[in-house]
Design a protein that fits this description.
Layout: E1 16-17, E2 21-24, E3 27-31, E4 35-36, E5 45-47, E6 53-55, E7 78-82, E8 85-89, E9 101-104, H1 107-122
Length: 123
């Protein structure tokens, strides 16, 4: 199995494909290929008494060679360029008129604005 560009880089809408290898009967069976919005963030790890490696953040601890979907520890916030600003949206994004979104000059600003919009909705 060989990673493709879609498993390594996000497109202009901030979407790629999950790079986690899938197996069937001990043979490679492709990749997860669910929508992915970035790489799995790093985390501290530890080994238990059996020698198994665990992540302290509780996210998927298997092999992820590129982008990861939310189920495999990837980000649940998608960031893309909208004109000259960055736009951050969640997994439930439909369009900018009906879904919560955050905008900013940087990716971090857009994510902060999106999280603030979510908090305002809940509060």
């Amino acid at each position: 199995m060989q990673l493709t560009e879609k498993h390594i880089e996000l497109d202009e809408q901030g979407i790629g494909r999950c790079s986690v290898p899938m197996w069937c009967c001990g043979m490679p069976a492709g990749f997860c290929d669910e929508p992915a919005y970035g790489e799995r963030p790093p985390s501290k790890e530890y080994r238990d008494a059996t020698g198994r490696l665990w992540r302290l953040d509780g996210k998927y601890d298997g092999y992820v060679p590129g982008l990861a979907c939310p189920a495999h520890g990837g980000p649940s916030i998608r960031v893309f360029k909208d004109g000259d600003k960055f736009c951050a949206v969640g997994l439930d994004f439909e369009d900018l008129q009906t879904s919560k979104a955050g905008f900013g000059d940087t990716k971090d600003e857009a994510i902060s604005q999106y999280k603030a919009a979510l908090m305002a909705k809940e509060g």
